[in-house]
Amino acid sequence: MECYCTAKDHPVKILVRARLAVRSMLPLLGVVQASFALGTLLLLASWLFIFEWDRQQRVPFLSAESATRAWGFVKDLAGVGKVTSPAYADSSEWWRGAHLAYDTLAMSVLAIMLSGTAALATFLLGARNVMLGDLAPNAGLASHSVFLVVRITWAFVRSVPELVWALIIVFIFTPGMLPGALALAIHNYGVLGKLTSEVVEGMDVKPIRALQAAGAGRATMLLYGVLPQALPRFLTYLLYRWEVVIRTTIVVGFVAAGGLGMEFRLSMSNFHYTSVTLLLGWYLLLVLGVDVISSQLRRLTR
Amino acid sequence: MQPRSASLNVRPALAVSVEGLTKRFGITSAVNDVELFVPPGQAIAFVGPSGAGKTTLLELIAGSVSPDAGRVSLYGQDLSSLKPGRELASLVGVVAQQYDLVPNLSALQNVLAGRLGAWGAWKSILSLLAPRDKPLAMRALERVGIAGRAEERAGRLSGGEQQRVAIARVVVQDPKIILADEPVSSLDPARAEDVLALLVSIAHERKLTLIASMHAIDLATRYFDRLVGLRNGRILFDCPASDVTRTDLNALYKIEEERGG
Amino acid sequence: MASVSKLMESRRLLMIILLGALAWSLASVEWKDGVLHTRGISALGEISGAIFKLDLSGETLGKLLIAAWRTVAYAVAGLSLALVIGLPLGIVGSGVLNSSANKRRTVQTLVRFILGFLRSIHELVWAWLFVAAIGLSPLAAVLALAIPYGGILGRIYSELFQDVPEAPLRALRNAGASEWRVFWYGRLPAVLPELIGYTFYRFECGIRSATVLSFVGLGGLGYQIGISLDDLAYGRAWTFILGLVGLIVLVEAWSATVRRKIIL
Predict the structure, then answer these.
(1) What domains, with CATH codes, occur in chain C?
(2) What predicted TM-score, i.e. pTM, was given to this entire model?
């Protein structure tokens, strides 16, 4: 691995060596067989645990009682047998839903654009070949550390789910769509950063090296060699993640108090099940609409 | 049980008979009014320039393409009346140019796939986990000379080995007619000759009819009983391999200045 | 060169659309009311400072272990159920078993619609609906996870099954195999490494989702993080968050190793 020879025995190199050593020992264990065994064990243990736990509940999930309850709940959602008229029969409720859906859409766009901007600004710093490998003629301690910090940051922010970020952020920001968008953006920044840097790592470096041979500086090389190749894939990922984000906005809204999510929570807590139905309808429309728009926009990148 | 002599058929049934066969793609005819009669046990090669219709003719005989006009019969049965699947597979087996093995399955499993037409549904699925009819497949692999690599994934075998597996598969399928589309054209000359010799000798010892399309004219002349020269979808000559002359071949491969009918 | 310039043009159009979207979304935030809490900045300081004051008491670590196991159990059970939903739908929905083009299109459209519906609603919403309908049960979490994941797996699987090189399949058909047998002997072996790899990747995501699911009160890492933050016990919250990060990093490493081994 020629990319490490410039870095002499500093901690990063030792870390890398240890990783290589572990990796070279793995075939002895038969990773696939061991994983299969572990997977089977986990599967059995998990189902046993869950059935046992379910049996201890007051109303087990798989019981006649729960079926009656579920049917009752479906009737509640539909507003059958209630004195008050269902929410979806009221046009002002529809308008309120439309307004919330608009806010939710704005939240999702803000979230994906913030994470996209952050990822675009930093994805080169987390690409191994740009920082340490073929495209880094003299990578020193500085670029090793930057690479490591960026990678660890991405791994950290994407490991923590959006909802947990939202829980933390509401301590700092006033409730509204901004904290929700920020929570979504932080998590997706890690996802987009990883995906995009993997695109760069999988790129054919020969034409880029040719630019360098032609006397281009490092900045020029990255700007003209790497960016045009990576940008279309980046935009595709951005749009794919937007489809995920719109589904998650409702969940973040539970705690960050923005859009459909907050209203969903309130309606659930107040047992206004027919407005739950209405809000879910708007949510489905929004998800469907974003899927359609995203697939149309993706065609522009090809 | 009727005695054999009671049969009213005087001459033995032809393995393949092709009458007035035509196949058009758009306005060009890939195969144009072809007549061909092949007795059982014969090894016959289609030769001719690229685009002459060799592959299309083989596909028509295999039943994977249906003709625009004319008919094909195999052992006296009309091809269009044969059901695809088990019935057809018991008559016709195919060896393709290359890339027709499943790369992620072992050589052994690929050979056993030749039995899929004969096996029931459960036996097929069970065999993926615990191979059925293994001795049969091993004998076939031994015959083609690569029994030692039975457990290797097909994708990791060399081109020559892959063709041997394809031949073993058709042996296990046990059809009466083998159709081979350019069976050795993707191999280097030495290996091509080995594999072709193997294919022809297997066809002889099992008394199978072998119909192949061939690129290399010298190999075709040496290994086949009969050559059929095809050009623009028509038969230019059809004679024993030893009777093919220089003039025939020149006419077959000459560069056409002007494309006529 | 016309096509290249057209491509450039459509990319520029896309960039303009995206920048416009950013501007619109920024404008729809109500900035004038002030976006920070009065104590927002100091809260940020307290919360980030607490990462150095982790709660490593035996009680918390014990809770962490139990919560981590519950989270893994949800993810494993949920994903296995998702497989039971996604694999048959993926096979049928790919249309590869139908030889008539008309029937294939009908089946594809129908199954795509079902899969689309399954994955359109977030797992936490399902979980909440189940809990509201029936009451707290781990099976509510498992089912909630399995529905959207079944939809995603089904979609990806059906695309995998459609996208298999034709030549080996033709050879199997020539050997007399029906479309079902072509599936078992040709399509499944061809896509198996990718199928396992993708499922493994989804398992990673499943751990994260299982964390979120436990917020509705089903126990698990998310639940513990939630109550720690409610108690303003930031140090304890960080312990659970870092536990989650560790768990996910572990699963990611496992998944990456397996994927490297099987995709050759």
Answers:
(1) 54-262 (1.10.3720.10)
(2) 0.82
